[in-house]
């Protein structure tokens, strides 16, 4: 029996809605990556993507001799008490996962909402 409704996935993780009694629970989205799970609202996902973009901008790898091969740096999350230690490759995977999820959710809202005639 299917207990989730997949939204988006990549090589790094996946995003899905939980099903409860055959009803899709649309209020929150489960993100699973790097042995970690977050259960976020859409607003929290939007906040997370901004934090990810801030981390990408603050990255000083352009001028570093290691060029993205350093071990880890901290990525802030919408949960103020939790930061993640990630590499640049992991950051790219998380960024794609969150942005892809938000895109698919927005597309579904349009197609099955205002886009219906």
Poorly predicted spans? none
Number of strands: 7
Please tell me what the overall shape is: elongated
Count of DSSP H/I helices: 2
The helix/strand class is alpha+beta
Largest sheet, strands/sense/barrel = 5 strands, antiparallel
Overall average pLDDT: 88
Could you describe the 3D structure shown?
- The protein has 117 residues and is α+β, with helices and mostly antiparallel strands.
- It has one domain.
- 35% of the residues lie in helices and 29% in strands.
- The chain is built from 2 helices and 7 strands; from the N terminus they run βββββαββα.
- Strands 1, 2, 3, 4 and 5 form a 5-stranded antiparallel sheet that branches. Strands 6-7 form a two-stranded antiparallel ribbon.
- The protein is elongated, with a radius of gyration of 16 Å.
């Amino acid at each position: 029996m299917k207990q989730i409704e997949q939204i988006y996935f990549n090589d790094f993780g996946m995003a899905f809605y939980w099903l409860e009694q055959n009803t899709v629970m649309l209020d929150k989205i489960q993100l699973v990556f790097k042995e970690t799970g977050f259960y976020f609202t859409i607003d929290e996902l939007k906040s997370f993507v901004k934090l990810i973009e801030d981390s990408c901008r603050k990255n000083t790898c352009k001028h570093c001799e290691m060029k993205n091969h350093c071990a880890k740096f901290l990525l802030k999350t919408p949960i103020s008490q939790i930061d993640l230690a990630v590499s640049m490759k992991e950051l790219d995977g998380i960024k794609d996962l969150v942005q892809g999820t938000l895109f698919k959710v927005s597309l579904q809202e349009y197609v099955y909402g205002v886009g219906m005639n």
